[in-house]
């Protein structure tokens, strides 16, 4: 059942980025980012290439830890009120809470079933019934169950590009994360597959808080409730999507939306 | 208007033709030489290799007996005297040629055992090392130095590995024993027994470990490349799903690197099977009249229980690895360099070389088959 606006309002922001600086070695990538991701809403990050929107996204599940020299140099990120850089944070648990879908659909070269079950298996779930239920639930939520229920044991690479990306979404939500990060999930897809994913994002927002990075401003308008515009590592403007696109406060946002620079 | 850049076309064409022919001739020369070697060995070796018993008998001394009627009889040491008596006054002369009679079962078994030990050791150490270098180690100067060292190791002459094996495994490696030998470098008492650094002697184990170090650089380098060839996306996705690094490696990296690792391993096997110098000081014998498991153990009393039988079987099995053995490459070396050459030693030699060639060729074929088969299973 879709959450009503009032019940969503009772929840504190699920992700809170507090005045965060981020750098790769000596090169600063993000400056004083301050951003709240609302509970069960879609938040879009837009901005020109290299503005740091993907970096910001990857800060939230600490995927940047893999990059040598990358670190948060100031501020903090709270997920459900807990600082994710605290010493007692278990990275695997954080990533179970904060799922991620990548730009390039990249299912494992395994069966469809094993792809979806992967996250549960690495968290030690062995029970067949639990796995079966999780696979069905995730595929249903990813709008794939009807298409694929008869060939769960087929190889995932035999699926079409759009199906593969939805499978990646199913895989990411199998562990029931609170937040779903999506890094330009449609950039490699054709318009019809893109449309399906966009419809899916709207449905996913009933159960998950979604943060999506996109290059496509129309897409941000179509799918998101809130939009953050980043430029040169700074958060220029963050507002409800409708407000930002119809009545931007900042001149920079306005000229970006008009396409006078990109 | 003519294109001002259109030069003398015939000159360019002539160069093109020359280059194509030079490259073609180079390739043809290599193919021609390889095929001739193979045909030559087949021609000389096949008749002897297909003689009954060549693959199933142990090596022995060849006795060549000539009779008055000009008949030449080749036989082993066991039948030689009987043959002479049978000929009686027909007997003219007898020649004995060492190592050239019987078959090459001993060397085949020995080579198989050495390969088994060396590949097990090299695969375990090599894959561990490759995983660490590729997945865990921090990129930087130190890692580059380690890589350089491994590459250099591949260039070390095999005789140096042989001497290293002699020093490290034959003379120094630790054994558990109640009665340490006098030559032990030092002994650590463990209470119930002693850890004595007295070496493993020349045996399959010493030779296998030495060969393992010969093929280790190849296996590490190839395995690391195979791991690197697995798309980074698999690792990222797996980590993003909350897998630990080891879970990621075990579930999403190693399976897809396995085909390549196995291919390089099989090429390593071919290398290990063919090396002579490393086993010369560590494992190989020119001659042995027993297979490694045909060891004289004290006979068990008639009322010995199942446990005693079981214990003896284990002892017999472990004993295989503490025996020195004959090995194919060393056998070929012995036939070629250690005994006077004549037509009889030559045929034994070509027979062995042919069998060895077939062995290596079938290993290479297996590696190709395995690669195709596994690629199908783990394609991405």
Protein architecture, described:
The complex is a heterodimer of chains A (262) and B (380). Chain A has helices at residues 5-9, 53-60, 91-97, 112-122, 128-141, 145-148, 161-173, 191-204, 217-223, 241-246, 251-258; strands spanning 15-24, 27-37, 42-46, 70-79, 82-83, 98-101, 179-183, 209-213, 226-231, 234-240. By secondary structure, chain A is α/β, with parallel strands linked by helices. In chain A, strands 6-7-8-3-9-10 form a six-stranded mixed sheet, with helices on both faces. Chain A has a four-stranded antiparallel sheet with strand order 2-1-4-5, covered by helices on one side. In chain A, helix 4 (112-122) runs parallel beside helix 7 (161-173) and helix 7 packs parallel to helix 8. Residues 1-6 of chain A have low confidence and may be disordered. Chain B is mainly α. Among the domains of chain B are: 61-97; 105-288 and 324-349, MetI-like (MetI-like fold, Orthogonal Bundle), CATH 1.10.3720. Chain B is built from twelve helices and six strands. Chain B has helices at 9-49, 77-87, 105-136, 141-154, 158-170, 204-229, 232-240, 245-274, 277-280, 306-321, 328-338, 343-377, and strands spanning 59-67, 72-75, 91-102, 174-177, 187-189, 194-197. In chain B, the strands form two sheets. In chain B, strands 2-1-3 form a three-stranded antiparallel sheet, with helices on both faces. A three-stranded antiparallel sheet of chain B has the order 4-6-5, with no helix packed on it. Chain B is flat. Chains A and B meet through helix 3, helix 4 and helix 7 of A and helix 7 and helix 8 of B.
Give the strand tally of chain B. Answer: 6
Biggest β-sheet of chain B: count, sense, barrel? Answer: 3 strands, antiparallel
Measure the end-to-end span of chain A.
Answer: 39 Å
| Helix content estimate of chain B | 55-70%
């Amino acid at each position: 059942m879709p959450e009503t606006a009032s019940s969503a309002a009772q929840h504190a922001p699920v992700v809170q980025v507090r005045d965060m600086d981020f750098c790769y070695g000596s090169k600063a990538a993000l400056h004083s980012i301050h951003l709240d991701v609302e509970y069960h809403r879609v938040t879009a990050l837009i901005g020109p290439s290299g503005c740091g929107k993907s970096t910001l996204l990857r800060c939230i599940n600490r995927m940047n830890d893999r990059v040598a020299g990358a670190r948060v140099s100031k501020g903090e990120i709270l997920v459900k009120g807990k600082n994710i850089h605290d010493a007692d944070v278990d990275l695997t648990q954080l990533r179970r809470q904060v799922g991620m879908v990548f730009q390039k659909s990249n299912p494992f070269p395994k069966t469809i079933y094993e792809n979806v079950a992967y996250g549960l298996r690495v968290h030690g779930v062995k029970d067949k019934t639990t796995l079966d239920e999780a696979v069905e639930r995730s595929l249903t939520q990813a709008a794939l169950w009807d298409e694929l229920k008869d060939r769960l044991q087929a190889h995932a690479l035999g699926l079409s590009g759009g199906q593969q990306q939805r499978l990646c979404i199913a895989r990411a939500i199998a562990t029931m994360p609170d937040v779903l990060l999506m890094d330009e999930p449609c950039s490699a897809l054709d318009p019809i597959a893109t449309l399906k994913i966009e419809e899916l994002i709207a449905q996913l927002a009933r159960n998950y808080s979604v943060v999506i990075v996109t290059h496509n401003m129309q897409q941000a308008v179509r799918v998101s409730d809130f939009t953050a515009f980043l430029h040169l590592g700074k958060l220029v403007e963050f507002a409800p999507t409708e407000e930002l696109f119809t009545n931007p406060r900042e001149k920079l946002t306005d000229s970006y939306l008009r396409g006078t620079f990109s | 208007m003519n294109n001002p850049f259109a030069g003398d076309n015939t000159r360019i064409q002539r160069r093109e033709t020359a280059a194509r022919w030079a490259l073609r001739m180079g390739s043809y020369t290599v193919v021609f030489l390889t095929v001739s070697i193979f045909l030559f060995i087949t021609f000389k070796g096949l008749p002897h290799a297909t003689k009954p018993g060549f693959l199933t008998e142990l090596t022995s001394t060849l006795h060549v007996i000539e009779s008055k009627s000009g008949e030449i009889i080749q036989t082993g040491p066991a039948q030689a005297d009987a043959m002479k008596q049978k000929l009686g006054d027909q007997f003219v002369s007898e020649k004995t040629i060492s190592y050239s009679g019987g078959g090459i079962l001993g060397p085949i078994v020995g080579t198989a055992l050495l390969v088994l030990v060396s590949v097990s050791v090299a695969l375990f150490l090599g894959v561990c090392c490759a995983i660490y270098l590729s997945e865990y180690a921090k990129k930087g100067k130190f890692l580059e130095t380690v890589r350089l060292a491994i590459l250099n190791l591949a260039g070390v002459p095999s005789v140096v590995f042989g001497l290293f094996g002699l020093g490290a495994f034959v003379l120094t490696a630790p054994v558990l024993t109640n009665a340490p030998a006098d030559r032990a470098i030092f002994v650590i008492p463990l209470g119930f027994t002693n850890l004595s650094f007295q070496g493993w002697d020349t045996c399959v184990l010493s030779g296998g470990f030495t060969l393992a170090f010969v093929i280790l650089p190849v296996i590490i380098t190839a395995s690391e490349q195979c791991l690197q060839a697995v798309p980074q996306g698999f690792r990222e996705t797996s980590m993003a799903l909350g897998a630990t690094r080891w879970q990621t490696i075990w579930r999403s990296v190693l399976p897809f690197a396995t085909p390549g690792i196995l291919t390089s391993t099989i090429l390593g096997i071919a290398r290990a099977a063919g090396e002579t110098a490393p086993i010369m000081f560590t494992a190989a014998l020119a001659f042995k009249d027993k297979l490694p498991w045909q060891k004289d153990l004290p006979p068990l009393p008639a009322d010995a229980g199942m446990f005693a039988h079981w214990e003896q079987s284990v002892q017999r099995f472990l004993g295989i690895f503490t025996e020195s053995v004959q090995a194919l490459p060393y056998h070929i070396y012995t036939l070629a360099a250690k005994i006077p050459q004549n037509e009889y030693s030559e045929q034994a030699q070509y027979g062995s070389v042919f069998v060895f060639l077939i062995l290596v060729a079938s290993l290479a074929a297996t590696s190709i088959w395995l690669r195709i088969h596994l690629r199908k299973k783990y394609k991405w």
